[in-house]
From TrEMBL:
Source taxonomy: Eukaryota, Viridiplantae, Streptophyta, Embryophyta, Tracheophyta
Example of a GO cellular component annotation carried by this entry: cytosol
Pathway noted in the entry: Nucleotide-sugar biosynthesis; CMP-3-deoxy-D-manno-octulosonate biosynthesis; CMP-3-deoxy-D-manno-octulosonate from 3-deoxy-D-manno-octulosonate and CTP: step 1/1
Keyword Nucleotidyltransferase part of the UniProt annotation: yes
Organism for this UniProt entry: Lupinus angustifolius (Narrow-leaved blue lupine)
Protein name in the entry: 3-deoxy-manno-octulosonate cytidylyltransferase
UniProt GO molecular function: 3-deoxy-manno-octulosonate cytidylyltransferase activity
Keywords: Membrane, Nucleotidyltransferase, Transferase, Transmembrane, Transmembrane helix
Amino acid sequence: MGICSSPSSSFESSNNGKTWIIHGIVVGVAVTAAVVAHAYLNRFNKIRTRVIGIIPARFASSRFPGKPLVLIHGKPMIQRTWERAKLAATLDHVVVATDDEKIADCCRQFGADVIMTSESCQNGTERCNEALQKLGKKYDVVVNIQGDEPLIEPEIIDGVVKALQADPDAVFSTAVTSLNPEDAHDPNRVKCVVDNRGYAIYFSRGLIPFNKSGKINQQFPYLLHLGIQSYDAKFLKIYPYLQPTPLQLEEDLEQLKVLENGYKMKVVKVDHEAHGVDTPEDVQKIESLMLERNLA
Ligand SMILES: *[C@@H]1O[C@H](CO)[C@@H](O)[C@H](O)[C@H]1NC(C)=O
Ligand SMILES: *[C@@H]1O[C@H](CO)[C@@H](O)[C@H](O)[C@H]1NC(C)=O
């Protein structure tokens, strides 16, 4: 072609330049978007790496005063719960949150870290929230471990934590297990229904779903809600202060307020026989069960 380039080739080359500039911009935008998206996703993942388990415990209880300290095969119930929680691999730290000096002393004796919370805490979530504020360190996930489930499996705690860590959409996670047919109409046994991605749709003290025969359908896999729950730490800061909602008030189920406000809750299904201790009579039941299973 020599030194004389034709107008067309010069046009071509300038067009090429433009193409390259546009290409460069497109690649630049794509790279920037990828970096931003990665940072964004990482932010969620990173935010949810530091996990604390809190066992809220209060002495006063109308049905069972001093419940956390009741001996189960010679060990205080709160110690049994704490020992189980300590085995959970996902927890960086486990603390007992209480308003009671006797409980605090007992826990310090067996080696637990204790956070004193005020007597004005109305319930476990409020106590967890106050404990979180009082802890010097930052945490991303808070697991509320009920002190009255001394046989809680560490794997259940881990399952609930991992569900929340894997799902940036959810601010809350909890566990369910198969409902025993004899508990179908017990209002103290809370039932749950979930969608096909494992998000909670609803919780009820009544049997859900309802079969039009009016009877329990022996074929349906009904779900029983277990008390354990974990929260995104930022969500826990606002959770106790969200206004009570109509369904929450009607069912007397705090977690409904999460759903009624449009937040997502992840539900993990686990194999677990619930052995909550609600009354002094339950202590004997759990002791004989532990003997049966060589857990004493
Ligand atoms: C209701 O329960 C019965 C069994 O008791 C079952 O056969 C039926 O499919 C269930 N659902 C409806 C809509 O009837
Ligand atoms: C716990 O206390 C908070 C704040 O007082 C309240 O909004 C919530 O409904 C209470 N939950 C239960 C289960 O009573």
